[in-house]
Amino acid sequence: MIRISPVRCIGPDNEQYGVIELDEAKSLAREAGLDLVEISADSRPPVCRIMDYGKYKYQQSKKEHKAKSGSKRTEMKEIRLGRSLRIDPHDIQMRMNQVRAFLMDGHKVQIIQPFQGREMQHKQSGYERMREIEDTLADIGKVEMTPRFNGRRMVMIVAPDKAKIQAMKRADDAAAKASADKEKSENKAAEEAKAEAAAEEAQKPDDSPNAQPEQQKQDGPAEDQPQPQPQPEASEETVEVDR
Asked: What's the pTM?
């Protein structure tokens, strides 16, 4: 509820009514069939706007929901490189694939290299491994925390490099589009070639034994065929019959 008077009043179409009494501002809102909403209570005088408060709340809710759904929550993922320095290179590669997937999704990754027993005497091997990992992930990530020991564990944090990731995604999208366009062009060329072949086949003459030349069908039998001979007319004879 607005308690202070006078107020600085703004109309529904950003009209500036200036500093007026609260009752007058409420009267303007009623005449417009809208609400008088205090949008800046800390100002002196308070700033009020004439608006549809229900519609305003609905639009604000939609904006907040869209902003919330559009933003991704960044998490700290953890990848452990086995139980000691003795880990197979293939296993390291599998874990690096997981790290890359996390970075592409916008998450930070904490990479942990455990040490067992006398391996603590070979800390340099751990630093070398972390440098190799840093070089492997340099195309999409950057080191946020350099390798350091935490007890018998060496820890390094890698964060996603947003600029490099966006460039990689654009390149992948362009390659996928080019591949789709090439496939579409090849399919179209194959269909055109098939249609041309069908048209050529339809234009070929029919060489089957039952086929007759069109001219022969129209003009009748050929000249070299034998013509039927006229039969001699039968002569009339008188036959006498003995009775």
From this structure: 0.48
Average pLDDT value for residue range 146-156 = 94
Task: Residue 109: name the closest of 84, 149, 145, 136 by CA.
Answer: 145
Phi, psi of 185 (to 5 degrees): -65, -40
DSSP class of residue 155?
E
Tens of pLDDT along 46-64? Answer: 899 999 988 888 888 888 8
Give the model confidence (pLDDT) of 118-137 as tens digits.
999 999 999 999 999 999 99
Sheet holding 47-51, edge to edge: 16-20, 7-10, 47-51, 35-40
Q: CA torsion sign, 230 to 236 to 242 to 243?
A: positive
Q: Determine the Cα–Cα distance for residues 224 and 78; give it in Å rounded to an integer.
A: 99
Nearest to 69 by CA among 61, 57, 80, 77: 61
H helix or E strand, kind and range, residue 144: strand 141-150
Residues composing the chain: 243
Alpha carbon 211 to its chain's center:
58
User: Who's near 123: CB < 8 A, 6+ residues apart?
Assistant: 115, 149, 154
Residue 107: CA atoms inside 13 Å, Cβ hemisphere, count?
15
- Phi, psi at 81, each rounded to 5°: -90, 75
Q: Which domains does the chain have, with CATH numbers?
A: 7-69 (3.10.20.80), 76-163 (3.30.110.10)
Summarised one tens digit per residue, pLDDT across range 160-208 is: 999 999 998 888 888 888 888 888 888 888 888 888 888 888 887 666 5
